[in-house]
Amino acid sequence: MTATSIGKVYLVGAGPGDRELITLKGKRCLETADVVFYDELVNRELLDFVSANAEIVYVGKIPDRCAGDQRAIEAMLIGRAREGKQVVRLKGGDPFVFGRGGEEAQALSAAGIPVTHRSYAFSVAFVTGHKAAGGEVKWGELARATDTLIILMGLQNIRAIMGRLLAEGCEPDRPVALIESGRLPLQRTAVGTVATIAAMALQR
Predict the structure, then answer these.
(1) Active site residues
(2) Structural fold of domain 8-110
(3) Residue 57's pLDDT is what?
(4) Do the Cβ atoms of 129 and 155 come closer than 8 Å?
């Protein structure tokens, strides 16, 4: 993954206290995390699962002594993920039962890449990336006519596609997200621009 790749955040419930009651997936997330944010009610023995190379951050809240504002915590989760890190938000019990798991999930979702957005993108177009080298696809017209352009199966021809977009007047600094093997364990995401994304795609 490149330095501009997008990481992932896991909301992990620590269970009722006993370290042996955490799920197998939760334990695996702790073992492979780059950074762990944990709450006051979390059994500290669970931190033994965390790699010695990982960053561990306490963000617990107790009366009259708060280690972090909720919005600040959400910003930290998003920030670490944007650095390309695997992040675990470890919360006592079940994060979605009288916890703030829902709020944090909404904040993380809002920081994603919506294909439309009421404030920014009002239109979306889908096009195949297989015909990039030929003249069948009017890339410049497509880019000017829509706010969000989604290119399916375009990785093989990404250099030609970005070249055509630039040649036909697309802004070089227009944001581009590359998603490879979406929703699979090997998913790779990189964020750049029309001018930079082709080179980033070759960095495997």
Answers:
(1) 39, 61, 153
(2) Cobalt-precorrin-4 Transmethylase; domain 1 (3.40.1010)
(3) 95
(4) yes
